[in-house]
Amino acid sequence: xxxxxxVNSLTTEEKAAFISAIKLMKAELYAYVxxxxxPAHVRALYPLINNTYDKYVLDHYMAMNxxxxxxxxxxxxxxxxxLFMIRNGAHRGPAFLPWHRAFIRQFELDLDRLVPGVTLPYxxxxxxxxxxxxxxxxxxxLMGGNGxxxxxFVQDGPFRADIWDIVxxxxxxxxxxxxNPQVRIDEDLVRRFGASIRAPNLPTQxxxxxxxxxxxxxxxxxxxxxxxxxxxxxxxxALVSGNSPPLxxxxxxxxxxxxxxxxxxxxxxxxxxxxxxxxxxxxxxxxQALHPTVPYVPVDxxxxxxxxxxxxxxxxxxxxxxxxxxxxxxxxxxxxxxxxPPIVIPLNTTLVFNxxxxxxxxxxxxxxxxxxxxxxxxxxxxxxxxITAGPTGTGFGTPDGDRVVVNTDSTNxxxxxxxxxxxxxxxxxxETAQITCVQTGQAWSISLSATTIPKPTVATVxxxxxxxxxxxxxxxxxLRIEVLKDSAPVFVDLLGDExxxxxxxxxxxxxxxxxxxxxxxxxxxxxxxxxxxxxxxQPSSGGxxxxxAGIELASSELxxxxxxxYNHTAMVVLTDGRENRSPYISQLLDDGIIxxxxxxxGLGTALQISPAALEALTGSTNGYVLMTGTLDTDDYFTLQKxxxxxxxxxxNTEVVMDPEGWIQPARKIRIPFNLNEADIxxxxxxxxxxxxxxxxxYMLETPSxxxxxxxxxxxxxxxxxxxxxxxxxxxxTLPTAVAGLEEREGQWHAVLNLNEKVFAKYxxxxxxxxxKFNKVKTHGLRYSFNVHSSSDxxxxxxxxxxxxxxxxxxxxxxxxxxxxxxLDNGASIRAELERPNGTKVNLTLSEVxxxxxxxxxxxxxxxxxxxxVLAKGQSIQNNPFTREQLLSAAVWIGGxxxxxxxxxxxxxQKLCHLLMCLLEKDxxxxxxxxxxxxxxxxxxxxxxxxxxxxxxxxxxxxxxxxELTDALVAFVKNPSLIVKWLRNAKNKS
Length: 989
Known about the structure:
About 25% of the residues lie in helices and about 25% in strands. By secondary structure, the chain is α+β, with helices and mostly antiparallel strands. The chain is elongated and about 130 Å long.
């Protein structure tokens, strides 16, 4: 329902839209279509106009000159008392209010057609009567002011002289010949405030109060001198509040006070006409609410022919609308902002911000229930809540500003939000803010208090695969173990100073790498150094893949930490193979021993790793799994990005962006990135590949153009810079002071150069690798730039699969929130999907509810589907933002089969149990005896090899016997082949 507001309540944007719509209507072409049924005067005058706005001018002019009875009668002098006083199609009779209601509603709908959402405001001239010259309606951003100079032309505002051509069809003192109409063209808008001796002032509130009390609606003879509300509203009732002469009060008085273009029948030439008549209509709507049982008169349509166009069931002149269709303005689709308001009840007036970490911002809402009055369409659907006092205490704020507009068509709940930004440990408040509902006049006191706790820390154990397959080729020219060593240190380098880090290895068994210790200072902390040494110096690859053993050991080490030494605990598992040694993940989940968040990286294809088991593990612990698929030389940074993405999950931070590219000598690259008011701390991370660490000159440029280099960063309290073999990064707390200027939200830039001397040295070191030498010389050096933010503006995305078999659908869903509530500010989310065959496609997510987006795609072939989710939009305070997240899903034949467990061992355990079972069968023993093989000796060997003891000291040639795997398949196909294997097993034992 359209809501008509007081012109003084319009926002800057609403004013601009209203003016724009009027100008578009003035510019819109209008062509009269000749109709032989139209009266001659219509056919004569309408072709003279050429735009939609001027049609309304002529419509009003025609109605004002259509006398009842007698029709169009130019035989009389238009300015003579006899015609001036006569009732016409729109004035001096009962239809005055219905005609203008239908007329301005049509105008309003045309405005909305040209600029959707625009409505007519009303000018409450009674409220401005004390100082009419300075009323807000005459401001430059609305109607402009009074006329000046010899012609009293308007010189300011959007309709001022020389930019606004207005066609004035003004007969003045001249007669208008129906066969040859004479039309005077006056190009500029004219106003003469208070110049008429009959209208030195505007009507006052006393005048309004008096006419609003008058009944009936109208009376016989239903003309200019009738007694009743209509005549009083129109301004033709004698001695209203002592105001005389009777021709100039209320509605009429306003036309005369404005003067100029508002005086003749073409008064819509002045756009203020519509604001004025909107208030006249509002007065009628208010009168109807005050006198709901007083009927419209005259009712009869079978007599009183001299009242044509004014009776209840008549058609209004020139508008095609029945009088009866105008009596309920709500039914016509609009309300006024002062109509009966709803019932507003507060649900909470005490807001407590408990346990907010230092540097974080939290929000709480004062919530109000809205119940409609009866009938429920008797008020504007927009309610305005304003914060009229407070908050003033340290840390408290109003993230949505001090004005909240609620559309009750879509909700019956209003929420006014307050924020608290924690800066130091302790308590704040209580203090008081005040909220007022503009429409109801109600006011409520809101109590605010907060407690701040230290910034949370996390202890993480890296659980790293060192099974035999880690020595295999990764696909990009490096061994898998080399890819791990190039990538995992990035995770360690970027931990917080107070975070904990430890390392565990696993193959057939689990082995401690380094105990959990505080990371310490960037670059030099002892915990970081120990963890990175454990990554780089881990034992040689070999053995089976007991993922469960690594998780079990990591869980034990995290469980041994002193309670409350860290706020959270987590582990990051990297594996390149399927688990084939107990304990299995399923067993750990069944036993419920995992109390930490678990994240996982699968280095390989769906057939090489255990996607189902990893997804079950991470999904039950609030983590997630990322899978690489087959790597090639274009995927150099993939595993580093996965570790950074998982670091973001462990630390509950956001990935702002992560582009990559190539840089050549003598070329400067500036990479823009946006930070907003919700960002708290930021890591701007440059991954430098395998080049010499100091070949990159890396700086940041602030929104104001200041440059941050490593020396400036390390001399600042809010900034730090760190560099290691594969990464350089700046860490900053926002806001941060640079050259005396506070920098925060806005567009930042990463500025990259190559140190040409170091680059030349690096290039020379590649002389023996001509392929790489030529690539670097041609393209330069590759880099990846990542920005992570501890932020209250968050993207959370996930993939959901009903099946892991090929042919199913995968649903990608994502949520955007700011301060823990849906971000409904016109954001958009898309995704870059890479299929298993390497083809790529862009997906657009649809917003299904505020801040919630999704899209589904077909997974027709087996393999890893990699998804990069990218969000962009405006924050609550309309600052631009971006967010990214990496996801992956696996599809393979057999994907829905149960993953390995203690009952379904999967590989050597499953084979061992089957073979032991076979050796217990008489038929098998007889078969072996005929082949001269001692079944008991074979059984003894199998018992040793298949002992369910992950710390078995059996020789590698027994515990890692690949022939055992091959034998089962061979036996199923041809039992006689097992003889060969059993003989080999016996000989080796």
